[in-house]
Amino acid sequence: MTLRKTLLAATIAALPLMMSGAAQAAAPAGNPAMQAQDNANMMSQLMSQRGRNGLDSRHGFALGNQHPGAGGTTISRLDHTFKGVRVYGSESVVVTGAHGNVISESAANRRAGLTKGDFNVAPGLSAKAAIDGVVARVSPNGKPIDPPSAELIIYPVITEERIASAAGKAEKDLNATDLQEVVTGYQLAYLVKTRHVSGNTPQFYNTIVSATDGSVIDQWSMVQTVVGTGNSQYNGAVPINTTLSGSTYSMKDTTRGVGGTFGGMAITNANHTTSAGAIYTNTVNTWGDGQNYIAGGSTTNANGQTAAVNAAWGLQNTYDMLNNTLGWKSLDGNNTATYIAAHVNTAYDNAYYSDTCKCMYIGDGGTSFTSLGSIDVIGHEMGHGVTAATSNLAYRAESGGLNESASDIQGEMVEAYARAGGTGALIPAGNDWMMGKEIAKNGQPLRWLYKPSKDGASPNAWSSSIKRLDVHYSSGPNNRMFYFLSQGSSSSPTSDYYSSYLNKAPLAMTGIGNDKAFRIWFKALTTKFTSATNYADARLKVIAAAQELYGVGSAEDKAVQRAYAAINVGADVAE
Question: Which of 77, 89, 79 is nearest to 157 (CA)?
Answer without folding.
Answer: 89
